[in-house]
């Protein structure tokens, strides 16, 4: 083959992009070619401040040497080990280390490759757990409107984002949804957990009563709903869910794919809110987003129900070729080490009020109708352009990219979640970049 024939024309439709319309994208492609700490470099050589930690995952910042070196060393030493019936030390070491930062009692870790897979794993653990205890009548799963739990069938079934469900016809049966907790009338411009709405947790009781509580296996919520526009929970809401679950033998599952690994200024949102779930779903920040990996934490009683359950359940009939993959495990260990050495969770905690003041200073800016902050997460909600929902926020996203800032939009909401290494000056830069963009939008 000569050199010429190997050159493939730049076809921007060969890679079918996730959650993106290729036909639109190829009109004005946005490409990153490098990254370092808080910045991306674009294909045309511009620096872009990362206001979203990639997709809420690069919590330690980009291309951190310790993580890069650990991946390189592991790839050269043990690239892959079979995940079933075989082990390698780093997966066990990572699981052990994870249990030391997890809320007390969440002592066992099942590895996956993504948030979506962690969700499926958690739901299957919940269903199988009840069966292991001889309580197979518990088959119902309860999610929440506006909940995002990844894109696999279980996740979109318990999830509550209409657009992610309606393309696919029949979903999992035996699923019900609580109302979401977003109430801008009562909780506008909130910082931290919102003031009103704890009583919405009683939806769980209503739904459980409707079906008979002894048929409910689990309820799954994001402690702070992220992808649907950053909806912090009302004060006391998660505690109330915990109480109802305890009263009725329902498992409480927290999906901490976004809120885990320091995003809230604590290791997990469970710590921030003082509520421990029975199962905790994580991914993203576990490996700093660098290598795909997820981890599902379960409490001891769940693990024990399998280990001492009926013979056919001792081996959980579930797992992935890459569960606990050596390179992912090495990346996870180096990521945890980076968080610890640099005190990044504590840094996020110290920055929370500074972050909140900065983002809330955009109140009164043109088009802004609500602002919400919690941990190092922020949402700026814009009034939708008449007759053209999502267009205004998407224009803000495109202009911010041109002006050197990466933001994320969902509907007409701008979501922000920078790496935890962000400086106060860079927080200021986010606000100063956004203000004129918002002022200039149609
Ligand atoms: N759960 C939550 C709460 C998430 O935010 C996400 C991803 N944004 C997922 C699950 C799915 O994770 P992944 O894209 O890694 O499958």
From TrEMBL:
It holds the Pfam family Aminotran_3. GO terms for molecular function: adenosylmethionine-8-amino-7-oxononanoate transaminase activity; pyridoxal phosphate binding. The keyword Transferase applies. GO terms for biological process: biotin biosynthetic process. InterPro entries: Aminotrans_3 (IPR005814), Aminotrans_3_PPA_site (IPR049704), PyrdxlP-dep_Trfase (IPR015424), PyrdxlP-dep_Trfase_major (IPR015421), PyrdxlP-dep_Trfase_small (IPR015422). The keyword Transferase applies. Keywords: Aminotransferase, Pyridoxal phosphate, Transferase. Its cofactor is pyridoxal 5'-phosphate. Belongs to the class-III pyridoxal-phosphate-dependent aminotransferase family. PANTHER family: ADENOSYLMETHIONINE-8-AMINO-7-OXONONANOATE AMINOTRANSFERASE (PTHR42684), BETA-ALANINE--PYRUVATE AMINOTRANSFERASE (PTHR42684:SF1). This is Aspartate aminotransferase family protein. It comes from Jiella flava.
């Amino acid at each position: 083959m000569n050199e010429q024939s190997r050159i493939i024309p730049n076809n921007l439709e060969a890679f079918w992009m996730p959650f993106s319309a290729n036909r639109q994208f190829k009109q004005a492609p946005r490409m990153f070619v490098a990254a370092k700490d808080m910045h991306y470099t674009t294909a045309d050589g511009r620096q872009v401040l990362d206001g979203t930690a990639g997709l809420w995952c690069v919590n330690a910042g980009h291309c951190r040497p310790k993580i890069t070196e650990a991946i390189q060393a592991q790839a050269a030493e043990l690239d892959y080990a079979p995940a079933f019936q075989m082990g390698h030390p780093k997966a066990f070491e990572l699981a052990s280390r994870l249990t030391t930062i997890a809320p007390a009692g969440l002592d066992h870790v099942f590895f996956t490759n993504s948030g979506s897979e962690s969700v499926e794993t958690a739901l299957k653990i919940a269903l199988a757990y009840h069966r292991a205890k001889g309580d197979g009548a518990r088959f119902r799963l309860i999610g929440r409107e506006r909940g995002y739990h990844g894109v696999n069938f279980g996740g979109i079934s318990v999830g509550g984002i209409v657009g992610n469900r309606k393309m696919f016809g029949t979903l999992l049966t035996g699923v019900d949804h609580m109302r979401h907790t977003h109430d801008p009338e009562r909780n506008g411009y909130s910082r931290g957990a919102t003031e009103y709405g704890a009583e919405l947790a009683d939806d769980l009781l209503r739904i459980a009563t409707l079906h008979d509580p002894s048929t409910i296996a689990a309820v799954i919520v994001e402690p702070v709903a992220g992808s649907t526009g950053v909806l912090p929970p009302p004060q006391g809401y998660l505690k109330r869910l915990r109480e109802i679950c305890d009263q009725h033998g329902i498992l409480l599952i927290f999906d901490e794919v976004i809120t885990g690994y320091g995003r809230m200024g604590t290791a997990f949102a469970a710590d921030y809110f003082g509520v421990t779930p029975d199962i905790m779903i994580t991914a993203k920040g576990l490996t700093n987003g660098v290598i795909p990996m997820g981890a599902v934490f379960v409490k001891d009683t769940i693990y024990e129900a399998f280990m001492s359950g009926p013979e056919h359940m001792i081996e959980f009939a579930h797992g992935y070729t890459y569960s606990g993959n050596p390179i992912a495990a090495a990346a996870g260990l180096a990521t945890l080490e980076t968080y610890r050495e640099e005190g990044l969770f504590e840094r996020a905690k110290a920055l929370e009020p500074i972050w909140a003041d900065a983002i809330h200073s955009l109140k009164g800016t043109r088009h802004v109708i609500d602002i919400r902050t919690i941990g190092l997460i922020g949402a700026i909600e814009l009034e939708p352009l008449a007759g053209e929902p999502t267009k205004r926020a998407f224009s803000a996203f495109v202009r911010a990219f041109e002006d050197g800032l990466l933001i994320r939009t969902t509907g007409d909401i701008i979501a922000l979640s920078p790496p935890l290494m962000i400086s106060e000056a860079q927080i200021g830069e986010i606000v100063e970049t956004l203000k004129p963009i918002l002022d200039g939008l149609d």
